[in-house]
Amino acid sequence: MALTMLRACSFCEIRCGADRTRDDARPPCLAGARTWCFKRHVSYAEETELVPSYMVYLSACNFRCRFCVQAPACFTPDEGAALDPAQAAEDFSRAVRMGARSINLLGGEPSVHAHTILAVAAEAQRRGEALPLVLNTNMYMTPGVIDLLDGVIRTYVADLKFGNDTCAERIAGITDYTRIVYRNLLHAAAGSRVIVRHLLMPGHTDCCLRPTLTWMRQNLPEAPFTLMTGYVPEYLAAPTGSCDAQGLSRLLSTEEVRDAESLVANAGVRRSA
């Protein structure tokens, strides 16, 4: 099924239909049939239940967030080294043996590499191992991807970046954002653990954070919620970048962080540890 989807790509809701097995394919995410990894390291900065977490950054992304801290590497489809499923399975298993509690797949957008993730999991299964795979994702995949990854992905770490479609389109170039991401969060939560993160962006407390908290309280009140307040203006949002990226070319103010923390504390959502 995954290879069929790859030949007329429907991994994400852009549904470009590109045949990614062809060398001349040019899907919006730029990913081909091979998956490339541009960085790996162990992190202790994730949610408590995930650390130590072995972070595996996969190249290519279906979003174009103007503040992306991994750009431009994550937008380059062949940045780093090609990922071989058998070698990756051994590498991930070695990380677990050395103490990693999770294998954190991120990027870029890891869901556009669902076929490779399934191949790595199959290699590990042949070894009699079940990898603690985490998908650190923008949640803009099609429902079929969530179905394919059922029983493979242990935890979804969902970056719920925007609280409305206007900000999503202006900042990340994505349409119909809230309907798709909310649908997928509920779908994923029905079969896997879901942790929801929201990056507080300067000037976006009312338009993005408030609606996010309202939706979480009404739909996923038991899912752990992480407010991320370490926003840094990078890539096109940098003060020296090519545009001001909708007013994102500054750090958060102390007042913005304080007000956001107060909102979350009184929102009726479950804070992550």
| The named CATH superfamily | Aldolase class I
- Mean pLDDT, to the nearest integer, reads 95
Per DSSP, what share of the residues sits in E-state strands of 2 or more residues? 15-25%
CATH class category name = Alpha Beta
Q: What's this, in brief?
A:
This protein is of the alpha/beta class and 273 residues long. Helices cover 32% and strands 17% of the residues. The protein has a single domain (35-271), classed as Alpha-Beta Barrel (TIM Barrel), CATH 3.20.20.70.
Descriptive terms for the model:
single chain, 273 residues, alpha/beta, TIM Barrel, nine-stranded mixed β-sheet, 8 helices, 9 strands, 17% strand, globular
Task: Give the SSE map.
Elements: H1 2-7, E1 36-43, E2 53-58, E3 81-82, H2 85-97, E4 102-106, H3 114-126, E5 133-137, H4 143-148, E6 153-159, H5 165-172, H6 177-189, E7 193-199, H7 205-219, E8 224-228, H8 254-265, E9 270-271
Parallel strand pairs: 2-4, 4-5, 5-6, 6-7, 7-8, 8-9
Antiparallel strand pairs: 1-2, 1-3
